[in-house]
């Protein structure tokens, strides 16, 4: 269980998250939605340790991760795909995948690599190419494969649909759902694209000004135009 | 004027060994600068330590080549210690790193003076010479060229084919993302500093048979090493090879046609001109073109 | 008794005194006083001591040049030693060659300064106009010094000479004439040399101090603190850096010339690394912003070094190296400033006095004793003259980054004194559009007009000078300068007149209700106050057009509402374009809104109209993409 309790976080003197709390059960798939600037990305960054948390706690299962360094959170089972994917541009696809396992699964990396290449044929096909040369959709698949290499318990995705063709976007959604159903990995998704989010998430959290202001089943949000106007529109 | 084949061979070898020398004294610095953006002003002293350790090894009866390898490893170990104690607190603070390593260089020179004394030491050049037509060429020049190729190749393999190398390169490209996939960036930095130091030690070890091994020898070479690294740009192997080729070639050609002083001046001028038009160095320019 | 005389006396003296105080900078009497003290010292001290102290003063000048270039202008140059050496060699060569004709060496000294300055200017031109990063400035200056070392060391052959002066390789030039003043071959004695050095140092030191009190000094401070911001205020930063670098080189060259005269010889050690390392050590010990600290640092370090047994002492380099490391790691501000800060904490009385004086390095801000009264705030909101607002127009702009079209034909015109909001989801192109108006990107095609003038290809600092005020998303202030100095730099950038800048700065602070915080460092203000201060800076620069990128980011509700007021005030004298995400803010602002989508303008209108448009919501939800992004 991923448990976030009353965290305040921000950049320098600016506080972006004002006492945010969120609990996600193992194996669940949730989406965090909201307009730009409300702190969605900051929430994921705080979970990963890229942004310091000034108060509150972050727990994964029994383990308190609030003060742990990022690479140890990765080893504890938190996998993160940031906005823009952050594929290592100068590394080949193979190296992009391997590097993720070297740190987290140093003994089992070869098997993990085989599994991922099997599951994602496009990665196998492009394995010797530079990461920077892949298309947006291919990079997204690579980022997911890379995340799987770390043997995660939780997968954090920051706007995975951004900058990707509509046809590929559906595939990505299917892939994420499959990752969850086959491996039981918890998924926390930050999104602006409501349709994409509801394809994956069962539960939706709406953020405004650094806090969670509504939480409801994803399908309900899909049908509630007024709520969409209030928190997602202009 | 016809150029005799042996004259040509002599010139070519002279050119290549000039380039090789520049390459081996710069490679260690290029690793530190290209991978971590660290300016190590004690680099000259790492070269010097490599030479002194080789000297000590030979004095204790070790085979020259074995002594060289051990010297390089010893300097690498010193590099790791320096990184843990000093450098790791200063990442991101460029002037601070430069000043602190500068202080380190003062200390290292003086410590070596206290231990070995300030007088000149030396190892006679091994291997003798071979004849090419009318010219007699030192075999060691060939060794130097071979060593340069070896070290460049070794660096390339370490950076691209080992686990450490891949993690270190990832940490350079996107440090936060590397951490997010489990790479301990602090640890790779330490290893990178050790690796660069070991390469510097190797460069110094290779210098030992052909130069006066004195505590102040670092200063003689550090200027050229810096120019090579800066002109080379952030790409460690490609940058060092291309910059050493260009600057070493210019230096050698001008020196052979005129004097060595003018050769050094030519190196400086070419370096500054290149930097004026390619401020991120040769490999930086190639990266942007890609 | 003498009352009538007294009255007459005071009656005639007082106005002269006041006029003197107003027009003669305080530095001149300061320099004179120090020179006189130097004269006293020089006549009373033994010759060998005079020689020692002359060297310290010379080193102090060298340290001063580094304090100026690094501590004040923020240029981390290793080149000061190079210019020192060049000055020394120039004096040596010219001294030997010219002395037979002229009978004095003062010309040689002056020439040494000029030569050093010219070299500095040339190197500086390459560095600063070549767009190399800060790292490379340090590297290039270091390499320059090292190569000079190598070069001069290899000139041992007698064929290396300039005129009569043999360059001498490792051994250097011997037989350099000591300092000889014009008019009869009078050799300056050691005591005379001491006096000369003190006098020179006094006038240069106070001269620099005076220079730094002028606008030039504030601009250097801005350059040092935040180069991007300084550029956006309309200053050509390359030129200021070049000037500062050249001045630093000239001073170092002067020190070098005096050094050669002092030692009557010059050798390549003058370029050596240990010698060059001393310079930052002196400056760090004395406090890197402090002009006086340069001399104090020399005194302390050289004193310690001499006590340890002189230059050849076996422990000295180790101590110096350790000292350098310790200072860099533990006391980055420098030894003296840290000690004086500690002292201030334990002795509060000292603290009050120094707060009034300002921490070392702060160029005094003459807020003046005048009360800010409301009459200063007139129609132009913050006082002073104001340019008229103009329109800003973009015509069919395209922008491609590699293969991606960030802007695919956007056209927009905002009339003078209009307020306009730009909105749109991520990647829609509004930020690219904004940065293109600001001059940070050039459009791939299309034009940008300021009023009638084409500014499509103008750099950001050129646009700032033409009246575009820019506030970027990331807060960009001079954290260590006071609030007053922040707005003052903005005002001066536009007006280039001290008096007007003062008026506008005071007016801007009053408008923001930040007058009580005028003397506080901007970094100590709250987040909201800093955002306002930045808007105030934009206002103080008398813009015709104002571009604001997410001005309310990170603000509370009340702070956000204040920004609405500020923008309405701005619009009285300027045209305002705002990029925003905060829809509540956009609603309160009540201005026309333009929405971007996929690099084009999707629709415009009032926020209520857009609210009612279902297509707008769909776009925000990620539906209705008309073509693939990749």
**How many separate helices of chain A?**
10
| Number of separate structural domains of chain C | 2
CA-atom Rg of chain A in angstroms: 17 Å
What is the third-level CATH name, the topology of chain A? Rossmann fold
Q: Which strand-content bin applies to the residues of chain A?
A: 25-35%
Query: Based on helices, strands and strand pairing, what is the structural class of chain A?
Result: alpha/beta
User: For the CA atoms, what is the radius of gyration of chain C?
Assistant: 30 Å
What is the number of helical segments of chain C per DSSP (H or I, 4+ residues)?
24
N- to C-terminal distance of chain A: 35 Å
Largest binding interface between chains: B-C, 43 and 44 residues
Chain oligomer state: heterotrimer
Give the end-to-end Cα distance of chain C, rounded to a whole number of Å: 99 Å
Helix/strand class of chain C: alpha/beta
Tally of individual domains of chain A: 1
Q: Could you name the CATH class of chain A?
A: Alpha Beta
Taking pLDDT < 50 over at least 5 consecutive residues as the criterion, the unreliable ranges of chain C are 1-9, 350-379
Gist?
Chain A is α/β, with parallel strands linked by helices and 234 residues long.
Task: Give your account of this protein's structure.
The complex is a heterotrimer of chains A (234), B (290) and C (630). Chain A has helices at 40-48, 70-76, 93-104, 109-119, 121-125, 136-149, 166-183, 194-200, 218-223, 225-232, and strands spanning 2-11, 14-24, 29-33, 53-60, 63-64, 78-81, 154-158, 186-191, 203-208, 211-217. Chain A has 234 residues and is α/β, with parallel strands linked by helices. Chain A has one domain (27-41, 69-232): P-loop containing nucleotide triphosphate hydrolases (Rossmann fold). Chain B is mainly α and 290 residues long. Chain B has one domain (5-218). Chain B is built from twelve helices and two strands; from the N terminus they run ααααββαααααααα. The model of chain B has no long low-confidence stretch (mean pLDDT 88). Chain C has helices at residues 3-23, 27-44, 47-72, 80-102, 106-128, 134-153, 190-213, 215-225, 227-232, 237-263, 273-286, 291-307, 316-330, 335-346, 348-357, 430-438, 460-465, 483-495, 498-511, 527-540, 557-570, 583-589, 607-612, 614-620; strands at 161-162, 165-166, 173-174, 180-181, 186-187, 265-266, 392-401, 404-414, 419-423, 445-450, 453-454, 468-471, 545-549, 575-579, 593-597, 600-605. In chain C, strands 12-13-14-9-15-16 form a six-stranded mixed beta sheet, sandwiched between helices. Chain C has a four-stranded antiparallel beta sheet with strand order 8-7-10-11, covered by helices on one side. A two-stranded antiparallel sheet of chain C has the order 1-2. Chain C has 24 helices and 16 strands. The radius of gyration of chain C is 30 Å and the shape is elongated. Classes of the chains: A alpha/beta (234), B mainly alpha (290), C alpha/beta (630). Chains in contact: A-B, A-C, B-C. Chain B binds chain C through residues 37, 39, 41, 44, 86, 89-90, 94-96, 98-100, 102-107, 109-111, 113-114, 219-220, 222-224, 226-227, 230, 260-261, 264-265, 267-268, 271-272, 275-276, 279, and chain C through 70, 76, 126, 130-136, 138-140, 142-144, 146-147, 149-151, 154-155, 160, 272-274, 277, 280, 284, 314-318, 320-325, 328-329, 332.
